[in-house]
């Protein structure tokens, strides 16, 4: 690299020519009418030296005459002695000597210097000839056209007696490359290269033994375990490593080994992850430090050249610009360009190699033997929805996919230090989880203790652990504490700045700071810092909220070594037995062994009401947390509202304490898994992300186009071309772009919070803006939480027929009343009834009360006027979705008999009841009630043969429930929430399909769907049901009750609105059947009601919808929690401020919260895209016509105007755009997420095209103005490398005003998002900023020269020029103007024309955007 550096610098320096010039017209040659410009005076013109071979040939006035003691020397001056040094300064040699000096010039000597002249009739297009004529006249040369030649064009000879020393540009000096700074660069970089080479050779030899040993071990393991699921399978396309089973270690490690010192993860949360072991070596560490040091030295080296450019080097070079480049600005600029490019390459290479760099300079080792473990986790991009892509998109996706794999960006690399416990056990911590080394197999895995799944075995562990066992388990699983590391603000900024975007901005900003562009660089740096600050603050706030939710520590009573003691929850391990106390925060998942507990699970599951938990029974049933075991599980993250010890029980552990067995701790708990998913998510991909790749490709091509145009239009200084091209590329992407894409969702999150909708994952706001399907639970979501008791219908035991329906429960059969009063799981929490809302309403209907001092599980005091006496609940079997029923065994104190009451769905109760007790019209009666929108529960009963409560525990649930007689039906009314119908109407208006997923009957669901408008009026509904998933589905018209053999003709029948006149509803068994046969995919969007759905069914239903649409799930927690987690967007209706179960939770427990979420999210998405559009248009204006004009005319905006545009206009408009509120209603369409969709292309393309057209036409108008022609800016008379001198002209003024109005308008025009955002005139922040900027820029344009305009060097000039124009003497300081006119004041009438023209540009783009 450094061998080529001198040559490259030399080539760049040689490419530099004198100056730029306009390509397509002669500057100041003709006026607006085609006439030659009137001559103008040019004063103080310096004449070239006249050179002759004999001084006697000089004109008389120029012949030298020196004092007697002096001689006239070759430098054109008189000296006492003409030394060699003096002679070498001959101006007629044009700084050339030796072979570079033409032979014709060797004998030339100068005449005396001609004084400066004033040219009365100066022609800008013929300046050289005018100067020669004027200087010749000053020297009394009468006919120089024949007697005077030009250096290097016509030499002395014949009639030519003298030549003008119009020297060609002096050759640019070059380095000898033995300068101290180059020697230092060679030495430092050469030493680094040698050090890396030595390390690479050493690493290759040192790792051979490790690779060979692990390869041999792998081969043996493969041969031995080739058929086992944990065997190693080598895939050359993946990281070479061990393939291990995906199960956590349960009581030990059973793994196999693969190759290259690495293993695959056993954690199911990160399948296919691979582990690599490493250990440090001093030489490798030295390499890392050397690379860091050399990188910093490169940056310092750039800093040295930057300081030298400004003459700010210390010591003898202070105050001398270009001192390191021998005083040549072109050599200095060329050198910086090369150093800048090398630095750019170094930083890009370091960025690309960042995941591997540190570990490359470590030695590979077996993970069990190393000091570090690198976890390689594949990143599985979660696509919100697969959308059809065109061929170009496909090819770019393939290319970027290949690029990601090549650069290892398809994996996440995390290096963790290996640690040891106090007992010497080896482990490392990854994603808050401890991975322990098993000494036998030498493998790492998270540890899980098998506490058993049989109830009896769990209860046998009620005596707790010994201290030794606790220490052992604590070593294996680690502390029971989920530590969420929130970086400090400096660390958060450091994390933010390592992204490629900021690297890109940094390297280009350095060019700004170097090339006398530092004021603009400072403003852009401020903008970047503002953008980064917004992102950092939002991210840190989100992490801090999650930290508050995740981290928890308090003391709790624990039984160890047979004794109770208070210990920190951090020290709990699986197998510990703790006492559950009221007010405690559960920090781990536990199994309730004894007593009852009422838990507040709102922060975990979103369940709005406290849940009653019951101990596991002393039997051989299986504990399954997904089913019945859930009612015996205390989850981490929940709060204990109340506890009730049970000292007398027939089937559970008796104790004066409420005991729980710790099952999972840390990230192995249910809460820990949720936190882990939030902390370490897989990337989410929108079509936006896909198409952004095309945008980047377009911008790259556009950058190439800009560089080509710069080269073509400048036709001058190549260094200036390079710098201006760099500036144009840098300005293509605004530094505000990262903030623009997140500020919309941030504002939306803030507004949602004000509406009591809380968000724990702000990225999901973008997803919520694209929701197409909303799946909603029924009870508690669409309908009120508390069903209203409607009445009952008992069965006459003598006749087996229904008696008349009655709304008076006290008028029903005695047994039916006892069943209603006792068959539930309601508890009393400080006077508040706790439990399932249906159970609560049932209990209230019985008018019974709960005795706070029960003798058994519960004691029920029946209503005084019933004479039923006191009821003791001896045994209870909780409601299980799989059984669709619950049962209790009660002791009737008045009779001393034991009764079994069973409650459940009417289908389930019919199946288990004796056939003789079921009325013949049972199904019809239940269906009729369901058609009325009623919630129907059935009750059955039998009397036990024994009266001894102690013997109740001998029976299984099936034994107790078998042979029951049907008692009757308890009926509740499903009442819609007051705003449900309005919410559904809003969602339908917003093109959001609403679907009901309920555990209730299909007929009830259909009634509710019709009442709320989910199913339109006069729509036929076909219900599909089957007894088991193996049976064929039977379709029935719910209104006519007629069977339907073929549903397709009905579905094909369309109404006047173009939609089908038939909707479908299915039961749980029918849903399973459709999934099994694959028909669900074709009928999915025809089904409106999914009924009798278990929690797992709800998840499957949501996942099926997610295949085809962005899907949201709304529920009130509990049974909906799994579906809430699975959906693209989950919103839990919960009283908790934030529920970790889903990204969103609403304390306003109404479906209107979903409407509000979609309103705000759509507005946030539209705002982000509006900002994106504005900033893309910003880049196109900045690097489009503005840069083309800059290149052609060799002009530039002034420094202060650049700062106003970047710091004021772009930033102010972006922030104010984000203040736009949501639309009042959901629009019939969703905001686009396609940045290359028709809407975005039409919007951006139209704005860009119009801006280009108006910019071009503004120069057409300018060239027709008499006041401009013949006063044009001459690029040939200025230095293109000094950009800050190129703004004092009319061309720059026109560009300044037109482009500034376009910048202001770009922010305003994208505010027409009234479909999803509030109307533009309601965004008062935007209107205020826009009005101020418009007034400010209009004042600069329309007002006479003033201090404001002069600060931006617009409509201003020097004091003398302004006085000459009749504006009076300015009272403020004005720097000299780089213009022959001395001003750029536009005539007043033309100012108003230009202002109207700019307003016309704005009006055209606004009309385009509106229509």
How would you describe this structure to a colleague?
With 1411 residues, the protein is an alpha+beta fold. The protein is built from 41 helices and 52 strands. It has an eleven-stranded mixed β-sheet with strand order 31-52-51-50-32-44-49-48-45-46-47, with helices on both faces. A nine-stranded antiparallel β-sheet has the order 34-33-43-42-41-40-39-38-37. Strands 22-21-23-29-24-27 form a six-stranded antiparallel β-sheet, with no helix packed on it. It is elongated and about 150 Å long. Mean pLDDT is 82; it is low at 1-21 and 218-266.
Proportion of residues in helical segments: 25-40%
Secondary structure class reads alpha+beta
**Multimerization status:** single chain
The low-confidence parts are 1-21, 218-266
Number of contiguous helices: 41
**Mean of residue pLDDT values:** 82
Q: What general outline do the C-alpha atoms trace? A: elongated
Strand residue content: 15-25%
Radius of gyration: 43 Å
Per DSSP E runs of 2 or more residues, the count of β-strands stands at 52
Q: How does the SSE layout of this entry go?
A:
Elements: H1 5-15, E1 40-45, E2 50-52, E3 71-72, E4 78-79, H2 84-87, E5 109-110, E6 117-122, H3 127-138, H4 144-147, E7 148-150, E8 162-164, H5 180-206, H6 208-225, E9 249-250, E10 262-264, E11 274-279, H7 282-309, H8 329-360, E12 363-365, E13 372-378, E14 382-383, H9 391-406, E15 411-417, E16 419-420, E17 426-430, E18 433-438, E19 443-445, E20 447-448, H10 455-459, H11 467-477, H12 489-497, H13 500-514, H14 518-550, E21 555-560, E22 563-568, E23 577-579, E24 589-594, E25 596-600, H15 602-605, E26 611-613, E27 633-634, E28 639-644, E29 659-664, H16 670-679, E30 684-685, H17 687-714, H18 718-730, H19 737-754, E31 757-759, H20 764-768, E32 773-776, E33 788-796, E34 801-802, H21 814-822, E35 827-829, E36 832-834, H22 837-846, E37 849-850, E38 858-861, E39 870-880, E40 885-892, E41 897-904, H23 906-912, H24 922-931, E42 934-943, H25 957-961, E43 965-973, H26 980-989, E44 993-997, H27 1002-1012, E45 1020-1025, E46 1034-1037, E47 1043-1044, H28 1048-1052, E48 1062-1066, H29 1068-1077, H30 1080-1083, E49 1087-1090, H31 1095-1106, ...
Helix pairs in contact: 1-8, 5-7, 7-8, 8-13, 9-17, 12-14, 13-14, 13-18, 14-19, 14-35, 17-18, 17-34, 19-33, 21-22, 24-27, 33-34, 33-36, 33-37, 34-37, 35-37, 35-38, 36-37, 36-41, 37-38, 37-41
